[in-house]
Amino acid sequence: MADTSTHEQFDPLATGGMRRRITSKGIVYGALSVFALIYIAPLLIILLNTLRPLEDIVRTGFIALPDAETMTLRYWGEAWGSFCIGGTCEGVSRFYKNSLLMTIPATILSTMIGLLNGYILSKWRFRYDGLIFGLITLGVFMPQQMTLLPWAFVLGKLGLSNTIAGLVFVHTVQGISFTTLFCRNYFVSIPDDLIKAARIDGAGFWRIFRRIILPLSPPIVIVTVIWQFTGIWNEFLFGTVFTSGGNQPITSAIVAFSGSGTGERHYNIEAAAVIMAALPPLFIYIAGGKYFVRGLTQGAVK
Amino acid sequence: MQAHTPNSQTSQASLGQRLANLTPQMVLAPTIFLAFAYVVGFSIWTIWISLSTSTLLPDPTYQGFEEYAKLWGSKRWTVAYQNLFVFGALYVVGSLAAGTVLAVLIDQRVKFEAVWRTIYLYPLAISFIVTGTVWRWIFHPNTGVERALHDMGWLAAKFDWITDRDLALYVVVITGMWHASGFAMALILAGLRSVDGDLVKAAQIDGASMPRIYRKVVLPTIWPIFIAVTVVLLQFAIKTYDLVVALTQGGPGVATTVPAIVVYDLMFQRGQIAQGAAAAVMILVALAFVLVPYALWSAWQSRKEGARHG
Amino acid sequence: MKTKTTRALRSTGAAIAALSLGASFAHAEPKTNMMHQWAQGSEAAAIAKLGEMFEAAGGTWEQTAISGHTSNTLAKLRSDVVAGNAPAAVQLKGPEIAEWNATGATANLDATAAEQGWDDVVAPELLTVMKPTGNWVAAPMNIHRVNWLYSSREILDDLGIDVPKTWAEFNAACDQIVAAGKTCIAHGAADWSDTTTFDSVVYGMDQDLYRKAFQEADLEALRSQGMIDAFAQLRKMIGYMDDGINGRSWEESMTMTMTGEAAFFLMGDWTVASANLAGFSEDTDYYCTQTPVDWGGNGFILNSDSVVFFKQNDPDYVEGQKLLAEIIMSPEFQATFNVAKGSIPARTDVDLSVGGFTKCQQQGLEDLKASVSEGSLVRSMAHNMTVLQKYRGAMMEVITEFVADDSISPEEAANQLADAVELQM
Amino acid sequence: MSSLTIKDLRKSYGEVEVLTDINLEADSGEFIALVGPSGCGKSTLLSIIAGLESVTSGEVKIEDRLVNNDAPKDRDIAMVFQSYALYPTMTVRENMTFGMECRNIPKAEQKDTVARVADLLQIGPLLDRKPSQLSGGQRQRVAMGRALVRDPKLFLFDEPLSNLDAKLRIEMRSEIKKLHNRVGKTTVYVTHDQVEAMTLASRIAVMFKGVLQQYDTPKEIYERPRNKFVAGFMGSPTMNFLNAKVVQSDAGFGVTIDGGDGTILPLPADHTANLAAGQSVIFGVRPEHFNPVHAHRGDTSARMKVLVDMVEPTGAETILMTTVAGQDVVASVEPDDAPKEGETIELAINMSKVCLFDPSTELRLSA
C-alpha cells in the first residue's frame, strides 16, 4: 500500500501484464484488418481521386484505381494555388492563414480559461459551484443553428462582425464549456491535500495554479488542445456566417463541395483541397493520439 | 488568564484577506457571465422568439404557441424529431458496440497496437462535411460501391441504401459510427487496461472462457466509461447537421432530415424565425429527455457515494 | 468606349449624389461588398466580370461568395442585419425583395433608376418584383427560363422520336425510350429540382391552375383535381427515371442526357451555360425546347436574379451602391453576365444576336416575348419568385416527399400540399 | 504561555454540527494527540486549526493571537498530511523550499535550512529526486522535512503514519518522538491509532461524534477514563464491559456479574464512592488485568470462572477469548499461563484497576 501514491502516472495504454487471449491470433488480426480497411477506405478514396483526371472519375465513379498513364499530382497544385473559390482563383492557400489565425488563438484561450475554471471549480469550493459547473457544461449541448442570430447580435455590438477576432471570440466562449468540463473532471483527481499543503506553505490562488496545478496539467491540456483544435478547425457554419470574403476559414471554402453549386464539379481538385484542409487536425490526432486517449480517460471519465 | 489578552485583531477578517478569499470567484466571474449569457441568455432569447411574431428578422412582439402548433403540424418536423431519437439511439449504441469490439480485439496484446489505434481513431479528426461527402460517394449507386461492382462485371450487384427512403437513415448511422466508434474504442480500451488484473485471474480460475470474462467481468466494471462516451456521443447526435447535409441533404424526400436542419432552414432559408426558434426549443426539450435523467442519476449516485463514506 | 460611357455615367451619378447628400460626401470613394452565392464555375466567372467592371469604373470591389446552400447566404444576411452591418449589396430575389423592403433596411435606387431610365428598358414583368412598393430597391441581372426541356439528340435520332410538345407525347416518347432500354428522364432528386420539374408539369397542364396554386397559394386550387392530375403525371415521370436519382447532383443528371444515357432533362437555362462549358453543344448533343404544354402556344416560367441594396452609413459604400447599380443595369454587363450564365438579359434592349449568346438563349428571348404577348408568362414557384418562402418551403417538402415515397397517392399529395400551406397561414 | 487555545468551538455544515463546544489548550512545546474513530471530527478540528476550514463559532488562538479569520499562511503553522501531499512535479528540494519561496526568504537561507533539515532527517541523498521515485518511508520523511524547514509556531500532523506498513510505522513513530524532543515545538497530532497517541503525546484529546470526550495525560486517560467510550477506545485488546450489579456485604461493596454464579467481586474501598447496593453497573476490566488463578501471580482474591473458547498466542502475550454467564470476556495472559481451548478456568481480577460505568449515562461512576 505504501508505494501506491496518488500522483503516480497511470498509463492506461501500457500493455497490462494480465493474460487474455482469444484462442486464435489469426481471427484477431483478420478482424482488425477488415475493420482497418473499412476505416481507411474513405481516406484512400479521396487520396486516389486527387490523382485522377476528371474524365476518369466521371467515367468510372469514385471507387477505382488511378490509371497509371493519366495520374498526376497537378490537382494538388491547383487546389493549393489556383482553383477558383468564391470568385477568387487562389486556391485554398489563402484560407489556410485564416483558419490558423482563428483556430490557434481560440484553442489557446479556451484551453487557458478552461484550466482556470476547472481549477477553481474543483479546488475552491463555494456556494452554487455545482450549479455553475452544470450551467457551463450545458453549453456543450447547445445547437449551433440556434445560437447564430444571438451571436450575430453580440458580435455586432462588440464591433467584431466579419472579423477573425469575432470568430475567435465565439469559438472561445463556446469552447469554454468543453474545456471546463474536461479540466474540472481531471483536476478533481488531483488530491485536495496538495492544495491544502500549498496554502499552509503560504501559496496563494495564483501561485498554487502556476506551481502546483499547471505542472500537473499536460495530459488534460493535450486533450483540450486536440479537441478544440479539431473542433474549431472543422467548424464551418460560424465561419460562413460571421465572416466574409477573404476572412473566411478554410472549411467555409470546402463546404461548397457538398452544396449544389452550379457548373462542373472538379472532384479531383476538391478532393485534394479536402485533404489539405484535413491535414492539420489529422496530424494533431496522429501525433497526439496516445496522449489524447490517456488524458481523456483521466479527465472525461469521472 | 489568557482569556482576555488584548487583541489587535478584530473578529472581522481584514479587507485584503477578504479580497484574497474572493479571488476564485472573481476570476471565475467573467466566465460565468459569458457562460450565463451564452447558455441561459441565448436559450431564453430563443424561447421568447419562438413565442413571438418574428419572421424575416427577430421581432419581440408576443404571439403565443402558434408556431409550435404549426411546427408539429408539419410532416417534415415530425419525421426529423423521430429521426433524432432513432438516429441518436442507433448511433450511440452502434458506436459503443463497434468501439467495444475494436477495443477487445486490440486488447489481445496485438503487435503494432499504436498503428491499429491510430487507424481507428483518425476519423474523429475528419470534419463531418468531409465525412458525409466521401461516404456519399461510396454509398451512392452511381459513383460508389455499386458502380464499382458493376464495372467489375457483377451487374446484378445492388447497394443503394442511400437512395432508399427506408434505409437511408441507416446510412447516416453507419457513417456516424465510422466517425465516432474509434473514439469509443480508445476510451474503452483505456478502461480495459485499468481493470484489475486479479479480477481476470480470479475469473480464469473460476473456469470462465475469455469472451465470458469480457462480457460478465471486465466490461461491467468499466461502465462509467460507457456513460462518459454516451454523453459525448449524444452531444454529437443532437447537434448533427453537417453530416446529414453532406451525406443525404435530408433526403430521399425528408427521410433523413434531422431537427438541426429544420431549425436552420426555417430560421434562415424560409424567414420563419419564430418557428425555427420553436424547433430549436424542441431540440432543447429532447436534450432534457436525456440530461435530466442523467443528472438525477448522478446526483443519486453521488449521494449514495457520500452516504458510504460519511 | 464603353468604359468611357460608364465613367461619364458615374461622374453624373456622383454629382447627383453630391447634390443630394451634401458637399461633404463629394469625395466619397465608391466601395462595395457584394454578397452572393455564386462561388463556382460560370456563375463565379460572371460575377468576377462584374467586379472587374466595378473596379474599372474606379470602385473598390469586394465580394462575399457564400458557397453551398441558399440558406447559408440568407443566414449570413440575417446575421449581418442583426449585427447592425447590413451588406451593401446582396443577391436576393422574388418575394424576399418585398419582405426585406418592408423591414425598412433596403436602400432606395429611384434616383439612379430615373437617371438611367430603368423603367423603360427592364422587362415589365420584373417591375413589380424590383419595385415592391413603387420604389426601386433591386437591380435585376437577368431572366432565367425554368421550363426548358433538354433532349438527347442521340437517343431521339436513334429511336426516331420527335421532341414531345405535350405531356401525352412526352409519356408516349418515354414509353418508347424505356422499352429501348434507356433511361427516359435524367433527374437528381432534391427539393428544389423536384419542384422545378413539378413547376413545368403543373404549368404545362393548366396555366391557370399554376397561377392560382403557385402564385396565389390558393388552397382550393392546391386541392383541385387539376393538381391531382399533375401529381399523377409526376408519378408517371418518376417511373421514367432510373433508380439513382437520390443524391445525384443536377450536373450529373445533365451529363446523363448530354452523353445519351438518358433522353430528357428538365431544368432551367443555367444548364446551357454548364453544358457548353463542359463541351457539349446545341443541336449536336442536345436540343433545347420548352417543356411540354397541353394548351398550345408559348410558355415561359420566369426566374430572375437580382441585387438588393441595403442602407449604408459609410458614404463610400453609398456611392458604391449607385455605381454598382449602374454597372449591373448597363447593357454591357447584362450581355457579358448572361452569356456566361445561360440566361437572357433583364433589359429588353440588348441585342442577343451578337456577343456570344447561344441559340437556346435567343430562343428564350423570343419565347419570352411571345409568352408575354400571349399572356402565358408566369413566375417560378420552385425558384422563389412567387409566394413567401414559408409557403414555398412547405410545398417543396410535400413535392419532394412525393417523389421519394411511392406510396403517396396523387390525391393524398394534393391534400398534403394544401394542408401544408394552410398550416403556415 | 499557552501555545494553542481553542475555546467554545463549534463547526457545522448547514444543519449538521460536526464539532460541538470544543475547549482545548496546549502549552508551549506540548505534544497533543487528537484521537477518535473516523468521522469523530478530529481531522476537521485540525483543519480548523490550520485555517483550511472556517469556524462557525468560538475562538482559535495561536500564541494568544486570535486567528479565526487568518489565512493558513498567516498562522505560522506547518502540517504533515496523511497522503504526504508532496508536490509531484517538484523535486524533494523544491518541495522543501516551496514554503520559503512563498515567503520570499532569501535563496541562501533556503539552502542552509534545507541542508540542516535534510541532515536532521537523513534525506540528503534524496534532495534531487521526484516524490514518485521515493519509497513510502522516504516520502514520509520528506513530508516532515517540508514542515521542519519552516520553523513554525505549531506543527500539525494528520495521521502521518497510517500509510506505512507496521514495522516502518513503529520506526517512524519513535523518530517523530525523538524529533519532537529535539525541536520542542508545540505539536497537534491526529491519529486513530490509540497506541500512537499513548506513546507520543503529552496530552491526549479523545473525540467522538464531534464532542471532546476527555482531554488528559495518557496515563489518566488510560487508567481513569471519563466514560465508557474513552475506556473502550483506548487500549488493545479493548476493555471488557460486563453487566453487573452492586452488592453490599460486611466486607464492603462488591459486584456480581449478571447471570453469573453470584460470586462477589470485592471492590477496593477507594472505588466505592457514590455506589448504592442493587445498582446496575457496567463492570469494566482491561484484558491485562486478568490472571489465571492457577498461575499464582499477585492477588487472586477476586475470581471469576470462565469458559475458554479460543486461545490466540501473539508471542509476547496470549489472548484468551472466554465467556462468563453468556458475556464475552477477553483476557491477556502470560504465554506460559495459557490454558487449553474448552477448559474452564478461574481468572483473578486486579480489582484496583477496574472501572464502573453507569449503564445509562455511560460515565465512570467511582472517582
UniProtKB/TrEMBL annotation, chain A:
Its main location: membrane. It is a multi-pass membrane protein. PROSITE patterns: ABC_TM1. Keywords: Membrane, Transmembrane, Transmembrane helix, Transport. The keyword Transmembrane applies. It comes from the Bacteria. It is found in: Cell membrane. The chain crosses the membrane at residues 27-48, 100-119, 131-152, 164-187, 208-229, 271-293. InterPro entries: MetI-like, MetI-like_sf. The keyword Membrane applies. GO terms for cellular component: plasma membrane. Belongs to the binding-protein-dependent transport system permease family. This is Glucose/mannose transport system permease protein. It comes from Cognatishimia maritima.
From TrEMBL, chain B:
The keyword RNA-binding does not apply. It comes from the Bacteria. It is found in: Cell membrane. InterPro entries: ABC_transporter_permease, MetI-like, MetI-like_sf. CDD domains: TM_PBP2 (cd06261). GO terms for biological process: transmembrane transport. Keywords: Cell membrane, Membrane, Transmembrane, Transmembrane helix, Transport. Residues 81-293 form the ABC transmembrane type-1 domain. Pfam families: BPD_transp_1. Belongs to the binding-protein-dependent transport system permease family. This is Glucose/mannose transport system permease protein. It comes from Cognatishimia maritima.
Automatic annotation (TrEMBL), chain C:
GO terms for cellular component: periplasmic space. Belongs to the bacterial solute-binding protein 1 family. This is Probable sugar-binding periplasmic protein. The keyword S-adenosyl-L-methionine does not apply. It is found in: Periplasm. It comes from Cognatishimia maritima. Pfam families: SBP_bac_8. Part of a binding-protein-dependent transport system for a sugar. InterPro entries: Bact_solute-bd_prot1 (IPR050490), SBP (IPR006059). Keywords: Signal, Transport. It comes from the Bacteria. Residues 1-28 form the signal peptide. The lineage of its organism: Bacteria, Pseudomonadati, Pseudomonadota, Alphaproteobacteria, Rhodobacterales.
From TrEMBL, chain D:
Signal peptide: none annotated. PROSITE patterns: ABC_TRANSPORTER_1, ABC_TRANSPORTER_2. Residues 4-234 form the ABC transporter domain. GO terms for biological process: carbohydrate transport. The keyword Transport applies. One of its GO terms (cellular component) is ATP-binding cassette (ABC) transporter complex, substrate-binding subunit-containing. One of its GO terms (molecular function) is ATP binding. CDD domains: ABC_MalK_N (cd03301). Keywords: ATP-binding, Nucleotide-binding, Sugar transport, Transport. InterPro entries: AAA+_ATPase, ABC_transporter-like_ATP-bd, ABC_transporter-like_CS, ABC_transpr_MalK-like, ABC_transpr_MalK/UgpC-like, Mo/tungstate-bd_C_term_dom, NA-bd_OB-fold, OB_MalK-like. The keyword Metal-binding does not apply. Belongs to the ABC transporter superfamily. This is Multiple sugar transport system ATP-binding protein. It comes from Cognatishimia maritima.
